[in-house]
Amino acid sequence: MQYCTQDGFERPTLCYRTWKAITVGTVQVIPDLVAVKIWTANIQYLVFSIYIPPITLLQPTHDSSAQQLLDTIQTTIEEHSNSTHRTTKLILAGDLNRHHPAWNHQPIAPRLIEHADELINFFQTHRLQWCLPRGTPTYWALHNPGQSSTIDLTVTDDSARLIRCQLYHDNYGSDHRGTLSEWDLQPRRNKPSIPKRAYDRANWEKIGQDIQSQTTTLPTILSTTVTTADLDQAVEKLISSTVAALDRHIPRHRPSPYAKWWLSPALKVQQIEVNQARRRWQSSCADLGL
């Protein structure tokens, strides 16, 4: 998180680096909130940079409510989730100026905990998890040396993509330490699917003979000396022999991007006959000089 001066006020700005396979666009900018959308073919990330003004111990809860800001975030999430087929993931980071035992390591006054209820409810609704370890201080009071707190948070509902999240090595004279987060947002390639077997071209008599030749050593199921282990082994042998015979004697389809699902083998034969007749007609026209 970095800060820049705009209209006489310090506003948080979000720094990011992307690759060619990823598209980035700013979706909304209002005071104390910057939202950036990063998307690929199948997934989109809504990244929010948030600033919530600080509170005092005796300040009424309704005077310090962050619900309007959270409602704006919720509206943005719904707008960009309902207008696309992509899966939507969330990353929220910023100076939230709220105290709660869920992310703080020090005793907190109950009055201050009440001010964080809105954030807790929002995090639970979207299943957001902390990226920094619980209790990692991010703020050191300059006017009271030794006093620290955790008020800068980074949360997400896709922690599997998080490579690392740690405090930045320098505070540049500020009473806050920035949070450095690294994410793996590279598109994931789908594994190629295995083509289906062409059962219509199977030689079932040969497949049956192959399976029978591989299962001649199986125990007789009706025998009184057969145990449960023998029966399980016989079933596994039968399954593996059947799969091996199918792989040997049934070819797999080789789908073409130009294939037509309605082109049956009978139509294919007629297509070949028509093409051959057309070529004979073209050849006769050439011989006659037509």
Describe the structure.
This protein is α+β, with helices and mostly antiparallel strands and 290 residues long. The protein has 3 domains: 2-183, Endonuclease/exonuclease/phosphatase (Deoxyribonuclease I, Chain A), CATH 3.60.10.10; 195-253; 260-290. Helix content is 30%, strand content 22%. It has helices at residues 67-82, 110-115, 117-125, 204-214, 228-249, 265-288, and strands at residues 2-6, 9-13, 23-30, 33-39, 43-51, 87-95, 129-130, 139-140, 148-149, 152-156, 162-167, 179-183. The strands form 4 sheets. Strands 3-4-5-6-10-7 form a 6-stranded mixed beta sheet, with helices on one face. α4 (204-214) runs antiparallel to α5 (228-249). The model is unreliable at 1-20 (pLDDT under 50). It holds the Pfam family Exo_endo_phos_2. This is Endonuclease/exonuclease/phosphatase domain-containing protein. GO terms for molecular function: catalytic activity.
Report a brief summary of the structure.
The protein has helices at 67-82, 110-115, 117-125, 204-214, 228-249, 265-288; strands at residues 2-6, 9-13, 23-30, 33-39, 43-51, 87-95, 129-130, 139-140, 148-149, 152-156, 162-167, 179-183. It is an alpha+beta fold and 290 residues long. It is elongated and about 95 Å long.
